[in-house]
UniProtKB/TrEMBL annotation:
The protein, known as: 2-oxo-4-hydroxy-4-carboxy-5-ureidoimidazoline decarboxylase
Primary enzyme class: lyase
Gene (name only): uraD
Keyword Cell cycle among record annotations: no
Organism: Rhizobium mayense
Functional pathway: Purine metabolism; urate degradation; (S)-allantoin from urate: step 3/3
Record GO terms (molecular function): 2-oxo-4-hydroxy-4-carboxy-5-ureidoimidazoline decarboxylase activity
Keywords: Decarboxylase, Lyase, Purine metabolism
Length: 165
């Protein structure tokens, strides 16, 4: 059986800067070997969904702005850097960057957490369209959408780490 320390080290970053999810999943005894992306995802998502609203909000707030200051400063996690680069967010024109900055600021002001979207398979125009649409949501709808996107990101990260079920 994989040890708690090894499990948390390996999967503690699947939910951005939120190792408590991996810790609780391991402690709950829901980790079944052999490890698969679906099995680990199910265990981690169950913990995420059972977390308090404040804890889930903390997970949302741990995500970086898309094409934001952390990206510019080179301070994204490796997963976030690869995900944003794959969507072309590291190659924005000055006008596109200005639009992302404007939307990021308006979104965080309105909702209290950054815009989150699983960018795999999307381009910058797709992301901007989703951004412009979702900023019109109310807070409850957007909290639900953002948490669903966090779960999608977790699955995509796990699929790159483990065999599928």
């Amino acid at each position: 059986m994989i040890s708690r320390d090894v499990f948390v080290t390996r999967f503690g970053g699947v939910f951005e800067h939120s190792p408590f999810i991996a810790e609780r999943a391991y402690d709950a005894g829901d980790i079944v070997e052999p490890l698969t992306s679906g099995g680990v995802r199910d265990a981690l998502v169950a913990i995420f969904r059972a977390a308090s609203v404040d804890e889930r909000l903390g997970v949302l707030r741990a995500h970086p702005d898309l094409a934001g200051r952390l990206a510019i400063a080179g301070k994204l996690t490796e997963d976030s850097r690869k995900e944003q680069a794959g969507a072309g967010l590291d190659r924005l024109t000055p006008a596109e960057h200005a639009r992302f900055t404007e939307l990021n600021t308006a979104y965080v002001t309105k909702f209290g957490f950054p815009f989150i979207i699983a960018v795999k398979g999307l381009g910058k125009d797709d992301i901007l369209t989703a951004f412009e649409t979702r900023i019109g949501n109310d807070r409850d709808a957007e909290f639900a959408t953002a948490t669903a996107q966090v779960e999608r990101i977790a699955l995509l990260r796990l699929q790159s780490m483990l065999p599928e079920t």
